[in-house]
């Protein structure tokens, strides 16, 4: 008789993280891995990954610039998506690039997934995301009318960080303002120079809040630079938390990230594609956070 499949263990959420989320002293940073759970209106497609998006651009360039299209694919294969994106931007130009992004990110009418609801339910006061799509913020504002969205280029971002009860910051812009998108290598360089104050604010958040990274890689240029600086300047400080499937990193790599970037990798024993296990893990986290908040409201019950 065949044994039933082993149920993947959920994440053991650290007590410090639960307490910081409960006290709204934590920041959620989520990437494209969260959006990848969405489905189009017809249920047939998901949002493309960066590699898929850039390969689609290469296909558009194939007829007129086959050599350049192949170079884009080569850079994508090497993992150098910023250089590939810079080539795409220069070949397509603003109008065609915007059309490409709309065709792949807007036209399919992607809908929020259960993982969006699970993260929103944790009630972070500050959320950061480099995602161009508006899946999370649209859903968040539907569930919580007090939620406010702003971009990295917003001059009032510092005031909003101080005053808004629920703030969602688009660190790379959004499709609602295509001209502001941080898409390519030169865009990153320009943004880091022109919006130094914003990156200073994020660095301050890293020093004073606990970050929970979900659905993102460790290769985001902005956050990697900030985490490296944080790890170098504060080697003994509290670590931030990075959620990953067990097959994403080896134990050795997890220890390297802990030492180099001050990241505590939280792994769940399931393939990266098993999104249901991750949703269950966040539901469990919410239960722990809710219990902590209840204890905060009624301290006598825990005496």
What would a concise description of this structure say?
By secondary structure, this protein is of the alpha/beta class.
Would you write up a description of this structure?
The chain has 303 residues and is α/β, with parallel strands linked by helices. The protein folds into 2 domains: 15-39 and 112-302, Rossmann fold; 50-106, no CATH class. It is 51% helix and 11% strand. The chain contains 13 helices and 7 strands. Helix 8 (157-163) links the parallel strand 3 and strand 4. The termini are far apart. Residues 1-8 have low confidence and may be disordered.
**Which residue ranges are poorly predicted, with pLDDT under 50 across at least 5 consecutive positions?**
1-8
| Mean pLDDT level | 88
Q: How large is the share of residues in beta strands?
A: 5-15%
| Major pleated sheet | 7 strands, parallel
CATH superfamily of the largest domain: TPP-binding domain
Protein name: SIR2 family protein
Pfam families: SIR2_2
Organism: Ralstonia soli
InterPro entries: DHS-like_NAD/FAD-binding_dom
